[in-house]
Amino acid sequence: MLPEDWRSATLIGRIETAAGPSPVLVRGGVVHDMATVAPTVSGLLDRRDLDNVVGSPLGTLEELDISASIDGAPGLLPPLDLQCIKAAGVTFAVSAIERVIEERARGDASAASAVRGKLEARVGGSIRAVIPGSPEAAELKAALIDEALWSQYLEVAIGPDAEIFTKAPVLASVGWGADIGVRSDSTWNNPEPEIVLVVNSAGRAVGATLGNDVNLRDFEGRSALLLGKAKDNNASCAIGPFIRLFDDKFTMDDVRGAKVDLLIEGEDGYRLEGTSSMREISRDPDALIAQALSEHQYPDGFALFLGTLFAPVQDRDEPGRGFTHKPGDVVRISTQRLGTLVNRVTTSKAAAPWTLGIGALMTNLAGRGLLAAADQQPKEGS
Asked: How many domains does the chain divide into?
């Protein structure tokens, strides 16, 4: 699960202890329980002295078994707690083609192939070249309107305003090794392998992790107004395994240049591989953060999915039906500097229910005597 250079990386995560969830910091390969320093990851990422603080050493990553079983046993928790989980959609202009296909096919996978051929013939090359919000983008929009090919998805792909939406409630994500949920009534869906930026309460990007922004192509294809139902379901947001903090060895430029690999292996022997290159993103990560912050505040920070170039079209069963998940699929999302996120697909109904909300977390932390000390810690921006 770890980055290839994990010994020199500074990582933030969460683990389940006998007393309850605790933030951990991994520095030099040593795992430190940070609960007495900051009881939440949100609070830890706000610390002005984060480069110097240490918690209670638990041992090295080689000594400890903090990974989760892919069979659903408790283990490593998602590395976020109080942060709002946001997502940017259609950030790769060329991926907008697949969104338009969903819309034109009305969520019917069997109709997608014909729509794809027509649309790619008209915009496949030109859409890659335009800068969102530019005069050239406006000219392309006018041309597509004239040909009755314009779509709301192309608007957010090449227009001035990015699509920013809320992916999941606070504390509702799942971590490495947990089951990830797809609605039981969806028949056309896919994973979305993405890099996730983590921003603290001061609005500063402090690190990055991996995420799976599960997408229901049939629901959103029928109507964009079904985005909430397509995106936010039980166990439908996987994040992890760790947040890698930005430092002199890992910067936003590493995010910009990353290649995100995807591997899906089904119990039926099906195998699908794909790669999403962040160099092809149409909107810079800093610009997406700025749009998320333009008229909103996040006092506990937020996480932002950056979008994906990957949309699987390889047939799984019937010719022309494309790809869709089956229960038991194992999804691996990886990149060299962030590690590997692994989850097994089930339905949102069958996945473990979400039970630990904000109230329960605060009750647990108060019972451990951790909240009073947290108010006295030096915070960025204060």
From this structure: 2
State which residues form the domain around 120. Answer: 93-158
The C-alpha angle 363, 367, 370, rounded to 5 degrees, equals: 95
Contact between 198 and 250 under an 8 Å Cβ cutoff? The reply is no
φ, ψ of residue 361 in degrees (nearest 5) = -65, -45
Give the relative orientation of helices 112-123 and 96-104 as an angle to the nearest 10 degrees: 140
Separation of alpha carbons 229 and 327, rounded Å = 19
Are 340 and 269 found together in one domain?
Answer: yes
* Same-domain pairing of 66 and 81: yes
379 inside domain: no
What is the model's pTM? 0.89
Largest Cα–Cα distance in the chain? 65
Tens-binned pLDDT, residue by residue, of the chain (382 aa): 899 999 999 999 999 888 999 999 999 999 999 999 999 999 999 998 888 888 899 888 888 776 644 444 446 899 999 999 999 998 887 777 677 776 777 777 777 777 767 666 666 666 667 788 888 878 877 877 776 777 787 888 888 899 999 999 999 999 999 999 999 999 989 999 999 999 999 999 999 999 999 999 899 888 888 999 999 999 999 999 999 999 999 999 999 999 999 999 999 999 999 998 999 898 999 999 999 999 999 999 999 999 998 878 788 887 877 899 999 999 999 999 999 999 999 999 999 999 999 999 999 999 999 997 665 566 776 5
Instruction: Tell me 380's DSSP state.
Output: T
End-to-end CA distance of the chain: 35
d(CA 45, CA 48): 8
